[in-house]
Amino acid sequence: QEKSSRLSAALFGEACEISQDQLYELLKYAALGACHNATQPSWCHIYHQSHLAGVVVIVVHEMSQLHFYKFYLQFKHLRRVFRHRFTLTPSANFLASLYGERANLKSQNTAQGLTTTSSECVPKSPDLQCDPIIRKYGEKKRGLTSYTLTLEEQKKNDYPIKGSPGCKGFIYTECDQQRTDSSPLFGLDCEMCLTAKGNEVTRVSLVDAQGQCLLNELVKPGSTVVNYRTRFSGITKKMLLPVKTRLSDIQTRLKKILPHDAVLVGHSLNSDLQALEMIHPSVIDTSLLFARNEGRRFKLKFLAKAVLGKEIQSEQKLGHDPAEDARAALELAQFFIEQGPGKVAELNLEMLLTAEKLAEVSKNKAALEPQGRRVQKQLNEPPRLSKPCFLDCLQVTGQKPLLLGRQELDSSGLRQSNPSASNKQILQRALEDIPLSTFSIIQFSLDPDYNASHPLADLCGKARFFLFTYKLTDMLTIYAGPFEEGFSLKSVEKEFGKCGPIQSLTVVTETHQPYVCIQYEVLEAAQLAVESLNGAEVAGSCIKVQRPVTAAMLDCDVLIKELELDVENEGVIYVAGLKKSLTETDLREEFSQLNDLETLFLPKDRQSGKHRNCCFLKFQKPQSAADALELINGWTVKGSKLRSRKALAAGHLWKWIWLMNHSRGRQGGYILHEKREQVSDSEQDLRKKAKKLDHHIKKLYRSLQNNTLCVVLFPGVSSVHGAQSGLGLMEIKDDRGRSAC
């Protein structure tokens, strides 16, 4: 079974805060692997990076960690799927810090080779013996049969194979005759659209060894078309309206045209045969024939220009011409066979590609500023050694990064502003373009009109923070009573302290009989008190335990349930009632008999540094956590009876609670109340937008290919008016649409 990529991150417990440089480190390694000095990030580990299908980064502009928890119920998909989370240091220019500094590249393509100021992105003049083409085929000429894919190569590259489970119903071409070096070559290319079924053929072209077109026909898809992909296929709804030819008709015609010893040639021909639902035993794939290191592939357009001197897939045309592409692939294969691997390697295709990319980037960057300013900068500024951008490195290695949203990359790799794009438009473009790119940055926004750097927006942001603070405060607070006059407050504190660390405890005297208001430091403690002490006898009284009744608390039970279902809390339980004298070593020994225990987190007081009387246990399997809950409740550890429940608060939320508890007293109740009123009118509208945004991300995530690393970033806000930390969520999608962890 093919290995899948996995992601491991030590992010359990208190929030792990990641800097922009550390995020850059992760994305660079995920995109480039060991090339270009990319190394494993220091704070997490990607296993089998070479098996990643791609990297997709979703940036939600003007959003911070605060927004994620404020709209927690609305972000249903995000919290149930993305189990790896981290706090992100805010940046004044987030996208620039994400790309890394764009180096001032100066390239010169001469007969002697290529020189550049960014040596990290440019390969040196290659030793032909190390060329991947020579390593694969040797230097001598061979016949065409030496370049046809073996059965194993076809399986590895997802070609339809006779008898395989995924090819049920596929048509076999019946070209079973033994191939020889004089067998006829045929170029094949298809254009596809996206339908309810998946990729379906809309146009098929077949050319013979002389380049004559034998078949060039439109095809009516069998299922409802979702996306015509006109930008690439050239196919429109109007073109297909009069078409009556179906896939079965094309299959029959191809079987008649192809002789029994035919060899099909194409560029990534597996996708064409899959869409045609046909099996052919002998193929030459030019994307594999012109071999590159580490499984990378040259694009057909580049090979046609570099090897044949032909321009294809012109941007002036609407979509690709399949007959042109089929002919180009055929001629490339003929060139390779006639000239031999040695001559092909001497073309130095890797260097040609690098020179082309760097010259294009340098030329277009220079065109961005006026001549006078450019000359003045050259006179006044010393040479600057800057960190090369891994997006530039992607481009010069033949990979085309995708940037969609407020800023986009044009065909030359330059960033352009596109502020008017809606989230829906960006999503549609992303669904269409992401499969064509190995690295994508998709930018959404909660509200396109919202600008967090504006003073008024900053005021609203603080107001929303205070509103969020009130809700958390209410959830952490419980009221217990009634008690008899003269009851022992110390007894109450002792009993309720068994549920977790208490922040404050006060007696309410405005009632007929005294009540006690208890504010905890963690949500689990407050919830445990409500669940275990309501109706219990405490300090000589049978008491009722409840949270305050406020408008913000009406959906408290729903929020508690959703927190329990949060994927980050899966397999995590909260344990209270520990003696503060117990060390982490003592606890590990006590809990060693629990199956599949992975991590123990013992919170500390941020001011004194002392351990709290509670801990969190993380298990490898959710069922092991459920079994541990049954065992632990009622356990006695060194004279202390333990209480436990499912975890509710992730490390980030735990940190927020602590900050809120220690800052609330400095705010002033009247001001808080006033600011709550300021945001109440737009609150419902923002919730709807957050829910819609979550749906967009869900749709995008589900469309991703398996083994794709997906990172969602709430970049935070950094301005002259203050800063709010960001939040990152990440997953590697697997066959079940969940993390491959």
TrEMBL record:
GO molecular-function terms, A-Z = exonuclease activity; RNA binding
For this UniProt record, give its keywords in alphabetical order, as a comma-separated list.
Exonuclease, Hydrolase, Nuclease, RNA-binding
The record's PROSITE patterns line, in alphabetical order, gives: RRM
Residues forming the RRM domain are: 476-550, 571-649
Keyword Hydrolase tagged:
yes
KW Nucleotidyltransferase (keyword) present: no
> What is the designated name of this protein?
REXO5 exonuclease
Q: What organism does the record attribute this protein to?
A: Chloroceryle aenea (American pygmy kingfisher)
Q: What is the lineage of its organism?
A: Eukaryota, Metazoa, Chordata, Craniata, Vertebrata
> Which gene produces this protein?
Rexo5
